[in-house]
Amino acid sequence: MFGRYLQDIKHFMAFSVMYEMEFVDQYMTWKTRGNSNDCGIFLMRHMETYKGGPLAQWKCGFKMESVEQILQLRNLRRRYSMKILLSEVNLMKNEVQQLLVESQKLSANDSRVMYHEGIINIAARLTAFGT
């Protein structure tokens, strides 16, 4: 896909990337087997923590695939979402902030109900879009 992108913008390295370079799947201790939902979270964390150098010396902070890693991913998903939603470039930032203020006023039970309704809505939207 990256090679096609380079080809589309007529970059001089497009041919090399598509046909001459060898890509190797690297072993990472935090690699998962069945989690294809969090690829964006992994990517953002990798971009945030990689400073160059050998893979063996790279410490991104992820635990091995486990419940602990699931919790790490949940926290990062929340953190990255908040940064995006509250970014100065988000045209809907004020509306998001108002929703946050309103949600903090909810009781624990109402908050739980709203959370579960959100999960159901997300599942329905994913089904509607065929994913």
Residue stretches low in confidence (pLDDT < 50, at least 5 long) are none
Helix content: 55-70%
Order of helices and strands, N to C? Answer: HHHHHH
What would the principal axes of the Cα set say about the shape?
extended
Strand content: under 5%
Overall structural class, as computed from helix and strand content, comes to: mainly alpha
- Annotation, overall tally of beta strands: 0
Largest sheet descriptor: none
Average the pLDDT over all residues and give the rounded result: 91
Count of alpha/pi helices: 6
Distance between the termini: 20 Å
**Rg (CA only):** 20 Å
What does this molecule look like?
The chain is mainly α and 131 residues long. 59% of the residues lie in helices and 0% in strands. Helix 1 packs antiparallel against helix 2 and helix 3 packs across helix 4. It starts with a helix and ends with a helix. The model has no long low-confidence stretch (mean pLDDT 91).
